[in-house]
Amino acid sequence: MTIPVVESSAHHPGHPAQSPIAPLSDLTADELVKIREIISAEPTFTLTTRFAYVGLEEPHKREVLAYNEGAGPRPDRRARVMLLDMATGASTDNIVSLDQARVLTSVAIDPAEGQTPILLEEFDAIAGICAEDPRWVQSLADRGTVPQKVVCIPLSAGSYGFEEEAGRRIVRVLAFRQDYPEDHPWAHPLEGLCAYVDTIDRKITRLIDTGAVPVPAESGNFDDPAVQGEPLSTLKPIEITQPEGPSFTVEGRSVTWANWKFDIGFDAREGLILRNLSFTDEGEERPVMYRGSIAEMVVPYGDPSPIRFWQNYFDLGEYLFGRFTNSLELGCDCVGEIKYFDAVLSDELGTPFTIKNGICMHEEDFGTLWKHSDMFTNSSEVRRSRRLVISSFTTVGNYDYGFYWYLYLDGTIELEAKLTGILFTSGYSEADAPYTSEVAPGLGAPYHQHLFSARLDMMVDGVANAVDEVDAVRLPFSDTNDRGEAFTKSVMRLATEQTAAREAKGSVGRAWHIVNTEKTNRLGQPTGYVLYPGDQPTLMADPASSLAARAAFATKHLWVTQYDPAERYAAGDFVHQSTGGGGLPAFTAEDKSVDGEDIVLWHTFGPTHFPRPEDWPVMPTDYAKFTLKPYGFFSKNPALNVPPNQATGHYTNPSAGETHGCHS
Which mean pLDDT values do the consecutive 10-residue runs of the chain (664 residues) have? Predict the structure, then answer.
């Protein structure tokens, strides 16, 4: 069932529901049209100018909080617009005021420091550019095929100091044979062939051909019934219903569920955003997180071969993965009582378009919330847990990524990434064995990582926050530990930005406590939340590599910075062909205090993938997540007042007339 939309402006205590567009509301279609009108009136705008990125330029947090509390004016409504001239390659970074209807600033982007994200127009041109080069056509012929039977995969180039690439927009191209229109080309890589292409001059700048090898022939058509096999016939339908409707209420993009309140946002680069997350405790609405999103991700591959050494993708900064968000379908992507939200974005001509049902929200049962059967009082109580799920799915080339925010009745927050889709394949020989798995005859899948950077603008009971690193500590035999069984914990305050760049450590259960430095609970302890990290490998590339310089955020599990509205992206603003140094290394260069300040946590998490045969021809979903859990934020279990469920369902051996409840 789909829940109807209740449309209104985001509502805050200091302003009426019908106030002007809230400061952090997504740009509307009308605003995107207005942005195009403002930009196109500029004298530098031409027929070849493209809108590489359009998004909300968020005002400073203190301005937003003052407005929400009725203590200040609504901040100027602004957009950030990155432009690229496809005739010259020149690009600019612009700030547009919608309230003033003018361009406030326009700064030329130095290609030596990075470039705007890759355009779909550039991707679409690649096959034609390659087909016009006789060297490429000959290399295809050497492999028994022609351009019409080949799919060209244009990929971000990285930065490797090639002189002919200085100042130019480059993509690198790998090729796959497609035997017929419904044939999935990933099963047939043309190994040993790669082209470097200038998308502005529209030519191949370098062709690498290490020699033709046999093309894997076996089909990878996972959607072909002949490949799927006989359908599994023993599964019975599962139906999820809420006869009284869902427990949440929605006003525009503002949501209330149980004790939670928050706003939903969306961006072409970051995708799904949660804003203004608060929990009502004993009648008081208490802030927890101002803003949460994925701020960057990198997918580095470990194959050092001449045609693949450069394979590493920054799916936000280079590709704008939010624009590839799927339109979700009831019963397939989302099950139950569903509320959908659309996403409105700008295309490369500055025209608004809508991703219908880009965001899905629903409740789901989550087992036992709490339970105890007491031997002394004969009390037996159990409560069912449920969670609110806010999710979206995006497809970037071969991979599909789902991002699922979970809110729980006990104040817990989780973000889970779901990874599925198709492996990026290669040819396979014994020489590839140290870096590649064989997943089908002659078909390889290079080892790789998926490293996400979650930007968590925390606001635990206010803006004066700090982070304590807490480790479990074994204690040796001593006068106070004469049996050697005692253990304790160590607590270290992360005082400055550079000392707060940390790695997880599973052997000691390392966790990071975000505490308010000005407020305490009834026990005199600081109110706080704890980040339980995803404890998986950080970036595997050598620290001296080009990739490590560009993806420095992925070398640590945790970074903590002082809040700055300009610091949005973990690898910097202009990632495509950047040489590195942007993002978190630059943000932390001044080593500012993060003790009792308005702080942002950046958490790196994600899997290191040594592909299995079972991952082919389409991958079962893999999962990676982290958890934020209240620690001293409440005075007691905040879910004590959750009422018991009346048991429903079917029993295999029910007693006649027996009723079942969740307490006695």
Answer: 39 45 96 98 97 98 96 96 98 98 98 96 98 98 98 98 96 98 97 98 98 96 95 93 95 97 98 98 97 98 97 98 94 88 98 98 96 96 97 97 98 98 96 93 98 98 98 97 97 98 97 98 98 95 98 98 98 98 98 98 98 98 98 97 78 50 57
What is the pLDDT, as a whole number, of residue 496? 98
Read off the DSSP letter of residue 481.
Answer: B
DSSP 492: E
Angle of helix 134-142 relative to helix 120-131, nearest 10 degrees? 70
Helix segments in 307-406, DSSP class H: none
Sort 570 into a burial class: Cβ within 10 Å, 0-12 / 13-18 / 19+: buried
Are 90 and 108 in contact by the 8 Å Cβ rule? The answer is yes
Scan for tokens 């005082």, then name that residue: 495
Interacting residues of 152 by C-beta distance below 8 A, sequence separation 6+: 126, 127, 130, 173, 174, 175
| Residue 647 structure tokens | 């048991």
**DSSP-assigned letters across all residues of 116-181:** PPPPHHHHHHHHHHHHT-HHHHHHHHHTT--GGGEEEEEEE------GGGTTS-EEEEEEEE-SST
Catalytic-labelled residue, pool 198, 263, 315, 573: 315
Compute the distance between CA of residue 369 and CA of residue 480 in angstroms, rounded to an integer. 38
Active site residue 315: yes
Q: 214: cis peptide before it, omega within 30°?
A: no
Q: Rounded to whole angstroms, how far apart are CA atoms 273 and 219?
A: 39
Three-class SS state of 378:
coil
Q: What's the longest Cα–Cα distance across the chain?
A: 86
pLDDT score at 639? 97
The answer to whether residues 392 and 324 touch, using CB atoms and an 8 Å cutoff, is: no
Strand order in the sheet with 619-630: 339-346, 352-373, 380-396, 399-408, 413-421, 619-630, 526-532, 511-520, 465-474, 487-494
Tell me the three state secondary structure of residue 37.
helix
pLDDT for 11 equals: 40
Task: Quote the tokens at residue 460.
Answer: 């635990």
Q: Active site residue: 301, 399, 563, 631, which one?
A: 399
Sheet (strand 102-108) strand order: 49-57, 78-85, 91-97, 102-108
- Beta strands 203-209; 248-251: pairing state: unpaired
Helices and strands: H and E segment counts in the chain: 7, 32
pTM tops 0.85, yes or no: yes
pLDDT at residue 2 in the model: 45
How confident is the model at residue 655, as a pLDDT? 52
Instruction: Tally the C-alpha atoms within 13 A of residue 68's C-alpha that lie toward its C-beta.
Output: 18
Cα 360 to Cα 300: distance, rounded to the nearest angstrom? 29
Residue 425 · residue 432 · CB < 8 Å: no
C-alpha dihedral sign at 124, 125, 126, 127? positive
Q: Looking at this protein, which amino acid is placed at residue 286?
A: R
CA distance between the termini of the chain: 34
**DSSP states along 530-575:** EEE--------S-TTSHHHHHTGGGG-SEEEEE--TT---TT-S--
Q: Residue 68: in which H helix or E strand, if any?
A: helix 61-68
Q: What does the block give as tokens for 344? A: 């409105």
Q: How many residues does the chain have?
A: 664
* pLDDT at residue 331, as a whole number: 75
The pair of structure tokens assigned to 134 is 């006789």
Question: Quick one: pLDDT at residue 649?
Answer: 57
Contacts of 106 (CB under 8 A, 6+ apart): 42, 44, 92, 93, 94, 95
Residue 319 bears catalytic tag: no
